[in-house]
Model the fold of this input.
Amino acid sequence: MIAFERVLRHMGGLGLLIFAIIDSSPIPTFGGLDILLAILAARRREPWYYYAGFATVGSVIGAYITFHMARKAGLDYLNRKFGQRRVASLLKYFQRWGTVALVVSTAVPFPFPTSAFFAIAGVLDYPVRTFIIVVALSRALRYGAITAIASHYRRRFIIGLRHLGRHPGWLLGIAAAVVIIVTAAIWLKERLESSRATVNQDAT
Done:
């Protein structure tokens, strides 16, 4: 990670952008982007929003590429990349929760199968505009929070991020954030469904 971080730091925002694109693809990075963002923001070589901005833009690009590829390739693409059993369970989950599932997997810094949800959204013809807005806002919230907190607490936050089990305070804070994000996602889902229902009524 140290050597990789040096390479990305040397490349600047472009390196972070590329890593964020990869992070939103089916290629596993195991939370590496979150840790890298925390390290870079804690060192304060650039403002925290510089790192959050590049990471958000790269993540949206990577998410859209995954979404678009899955939309064109169909369900077979998902089964090849993620496994048939896993895809079947994630499809049921996404069909039930939709935007809520997308927001939670994108905004919460836990090892959710985020790229799988991006692909599933593409296969299920989730609205492109809504997809981009949800991913952009969720990623901006996630990366903005990580970089802002890391910039303030510096090394203490990095240690807490790497060893969450040893820091119950961080776990409690993340749990509270999850509750807030889920509540906001449910509200957003209801608003979107209400808007679609209004549009359909006006059309008829």
